[in-house]
Amino acid sequence: MMSFSFTTKDAGYATNESAVGEGLYSALLQFLTLFPELRKYVPALSYTIHKHNPSADVKINFKGMAIGDGLCDPVTMLDYGDFLYDVGLLDEVQRDLFRKKQVEIRSYIAKGLWQKAFIDMNFFGKYINEAEVRRAIHVGKLAFNDGKAVEQHLINDVMQSVKPWIEEILNQTQYRVMIYNGQLDIIIAYPLTRNFVESLKWRDSDAYLSAPRRIWKVDGDVAGYVKETRNFVEVLVRGAGHMVPYDQPARAYDMINRFTGADAGKTSSSFMD
């Protein structure tokens, strides 16, 4: 949400994920019109691309999506109390307080009271405003927006689910999907992501649930653990927190190359082969 993008009108802000998807899709179409030679390297915008591609004048070469440490379905991803208790950060009394709050938040979600369900977390970095960085990214004298206005316009959307969109993408045989998580992430903890993934209903959901969990190695070290079916792979990245590429760059690089098929040694579409 933090960037040098700007709008002078309130209507210029997105208020839900549909508007976010349409805006990003429009930007991507403009980019590909200007630079058609770069089309195969542009990452997908998933559901919106899937929805528009059949009738679009400019076709986007959408092959799949990778979601990292993402809040996709708050209802199935709220069990912070048990997770924090299991890792020793809460005692029994604190865990029970979390459990009570989680029930309350789920009731707000069920009633569509999105603002009451929203938990406010703000991040800000001064790095992007350093003179050298500003010159490198060619933003001139544009003001850096800290995301507050964007957040306020999207506050009713944060606690809503995109689960049906992910299930629809998974049900398409032509796409591949990866959901990965840092082992040490507390913001979107791995057990919460597993709760969500195991609740997904698509053509291979039973096969995923019964698939073996395999060890994934990078340079001889255990990089994480993987479960996969035909077009879906779920990855735990060992030793990483919420920002997987920052915490474990070599493992993140290997992971994304395996997923996209960019690894020169790969002979199949399987993550592990």
TrEMBL record:
Gene Ontology molecular function terms on file: serine-type carboxypeptidase activity
Database matches in Pfam families: Peptidase_S10
Keywords: Carboxypeptidase, Glycoprotein, Hydrolase, Protease, Signal
GO biological process terms, semicolon-separated: proteolysis
InterPro entries according to UniProt: AB_hydrolase_fold, Peptidase_S10, Ser_caboxypep_his_AS
PROSITE patterns: CARBOXYPEPT_SER_HIS
Stated family: Belongs to the peptidase S10 family.
Protein's UniProt name: Carboxypeptidase
Organism from which the protein derives: Hyalella azteca
Highest classification ranks of the organism: Eukaryota, Metazoa, Ecdysozoa, Arthropoda, Crustacea
